Amino acid sequence: MRLLLLIILTFLFLIVQVSFGQRKTPKDFADAITILQTDCPDSLKLIIKKTANDSLIKLCYPWSGDYKTVFEWTSIDNKKSKIKKYLIDKGISSNQHQNAVILIAFKKTLLGEGFDEDKILLPYQIIENKWAKEDKVRLTTDSLRGVYIPKDLEDCFKQIDTFWSDSTETKIKQSTEDEFSGGAHMGFGMWMRNNWQLWGGSRLSKYFNEKGIYHPDDMSGIILDSYHRHLTGKEINLQQQIDYYSAYWKVNKEPSEDIYPKGEKKLEFNTKQVYNLKQGNIPACVHIQSNSKTDKVWIYDYHFGWKQLSEEELRKLKTTTYENREDTIKKIFEKQE
């Protein structure tokens, strides 16, 4: 689950970087509609014309559809989006609402009706004003955005049990923990992160924060792994899971200057390779220097310390896989057992 999660996050990051670098982001409704007139496929335009306003969002990514342009404009990862800022200034902060109002305006344009921007925005502004009041008590209330928020891990199990049929639970039991958690991460896992407000904050995220878990992906990972164990009658081992994620972030943290090798300054580390120590299933990571001006490169591993590599040693390290990396690193640090 954890390796698959890392691969997924890296892949998504690369997609986001490429996508946002290639598409123009509009500054307002008029600009957005001009772009959509040429960017949106004619087949989708026909469907948009016939779709109810409250269902338009389902035609687009990631809400069931494949069309990604509007999502890319409003994604939380698109920090420089002009239309996102424009809508936030108008009182529309929700990514879903931002997508919806753009699509409604586009639909009206396609139908030749013209549109009143204020009328389109008003119902969503009312909803977001209500949400703003909820946000004042979001860490204690039992419901946010109309969705019940579990109070702890056991409560998560109770809620998930109500979502899935007996046949679905049977299929989950027949899968391995990694198969279930890895497969659910971008589907049901995303639903939990969004609807249980693990990103924005809720009593459930507070529950995890108090246990030392701060990243929503880690929270949903623990819930999924634990639910599989719950169904299959295994020990949850919650503290063990917490310890794993805490260790993961510790070893992945870039080494600070106060622990640099003697005489070294301003080392940069833009590359790292993760792996697990087989004994104890302990997360590990080797950080590779990226600004060396000689034929020697420093690497740092939380478990083994510092080592300066030759070009040949570095080449061997870079050709390792997740499965065999530990053996190579132990040899490099002369700690092969």
What report would you give on this structure?
The protein is 53% helix and 8% strand. The protein is of the alpha+beta class and 337 residues long. It folds into 3 domains: 2-131, no CATH class; 143-249, no CATH class; 253-332, no CATH class. The strands form 2 sheets. A 4-stranded antiparallel beta sheet has the order 3-4-5-6, sandwiched between helices. Residues 13-22 have low confidence and may be disordered.
How is the topology of this model organized?
Elements lengths: L1 H21 L6 H11 L2 H9 L18 H6 L7 H8 L5 H16 L6 H19 L7 E2 L2 E2 L4 H11 L2 H9 L2 H8 L3 H8 L7 H7 L6 H16 L6 H15 L18 E7 L4 E7 L8 E5 L3 E5 L1 H8 L6 H8 L5
Helix pairs in contact: 2-6, 6-7, 8-13, 10-13, 11-13
